Amino acid sequence: MNIPDWTKPGLYGAAIGAVALAIVGFSWGGWATGGTAQKMANDQSRLAVVAALVPICVEQSKNDPQNTAMLAKLKEASSYQRRDMLMKAGWATMPGSEDPDRNVAGACMDALAAQF
Questions:
Q1: Which residues 6+ apart lie within 8 Å of 66 measured at CB?
Q2: What's the helix, strand, coil split of the chain in %, to 5?
Q3: How many H-runs (helices) and E-runs (strands) does the chain carry?
Q4: Is the pLDDT of residue 1 over 80?
Q5: pTM of the entire predicted model
Q6: What pLDDT, on the 0 to 100 scale, is given for residue 80?
Q7: Most CB atoms within 10 A, among 2, 8, 58, 96?
């Protein structure tokens, strides 16, 4: 079997080009593996759920009879204590749930901080 002389360099070029294309595609081209895409989708859905629950948390804070006193305590507290205080107040506990959600509490605290 006669193989042309250009075959070997052509195959090397194709292999190097394929590797370079993969490196450029995954690094700068926005390509993602299935696992990475799944993780990104999970993160985005988690953020969307938290964003949907924040108005409930804010409304629960408004309905709390100790709202004014609690907001004053939150203003005085350090930033890392506020989320825990909000969770203890029960504002981040969603209807039908027994435990407060830490992510909702953080986002709710940001929404309430805008009212300070």
A1: 89
A2: 70, 0, 30
A3: 5, 0
A4: no
A5: 0.72
A6: 80
A7: 58
CA atoms within 13 A on the CB side of 72: 4
Long-range contact list for 84-92, CB < 8 A, 24+ apart?
86/57, 86/112, 89/61, 89/64, 90/60, 90/64, 91/57, 91/60, 91/61, 91/64, 92/57
Return d(Cα 27, Cα 115) in angstroms, integer.
42
Tens digit of pLDDT for each residue in 40-95? 999 999 999 999 999 999 999 999 999 999 999 988 998 889 999 999 999 999 99
Q: Any idea which residue has 């309430």 for tokens?
A: 112
| DSSP assignment string, 49-67 | HHHHHHHHHHHHHHH-TTH
- What pLDDT is stored for residue 87 in this prediction? 92
Which region holds residue 11: left if phi is over 0, alpha if psi is between -120 and 50, else beta? alpha
